[in-house]
Amino acid sequence: MTTPLLKPELYAACDGGDPPILLGGRCTCGHVFFPMQTQGCERCGATGSALAPAPLKGRGRLVATATVHLHADPARPAPFVVGTIALDDGPVVRTLIIDAKPEERRPGARVEAVLIAVARDDGTEALDLRFRPERAS
């Protein structure tokens, strides 16, 4: 039995060891966004068939990071690192950064998506998305 994804509406696993993909979208005007949404394009306001799902590569560059030293949720023990990432495919996302030494968290550093096992509220495990320093292919 395979471990389920925690948020399958946001990302999908890839075969062959490639980073997971993010389930974004693209407007006919060229704007790329994450997550997929249907309310309207942030750039041109188009709706309906102008918005189509678009898989986004789980690779990008760090824009900024912050280390959280105190967090109200005991299920998320501090410290942990939050990063803003400009994906290679266009959108900017905020997510958790793992396995990064301080020198690997500088702006411009290459990062890639990974799926890691996390505990659900019911005690079962699921895979959730994180980013880490890019590894050589």
Report a brief summary of the structure.
The chain is mostly beta strands and about 140 residues long. About 0% of the residues lie in helices and about 45% in strands.
Count of beta strands: 9
Quaternary structure annotation:
single chain
Q: What is the approximate shape?
A: globular
Total number of helical segments? 0
Explained architecture:
- It is a single chain.
- The protein is mainly β and 137 residues long.
- It has one domain.
- It is 0% helix and 44% strand.
- The chain is built from no helices and nine strands.
- The chain has a five-stranded antiparallel β-sheet, with no helix packed on it. Strands 1, 2, 3 and 4 form a four-stranded antiparallel β-sheet that branches.
- The model has no long low-confidence stretch (mean pLDDT 93).
What's the arrangement of secondary structure elements?
Elements (H helix, E strand, L loop, with lengths): L10 E2 L8 E7 L4 E2 L17 E6 L2 E10 L11 E8 L4 E6 L12 E10 L5 E9 L4
Antiparallel strand pairs: 1-2, 2-3, 2-4, 5-6, 5-8, 6-7, 8-9
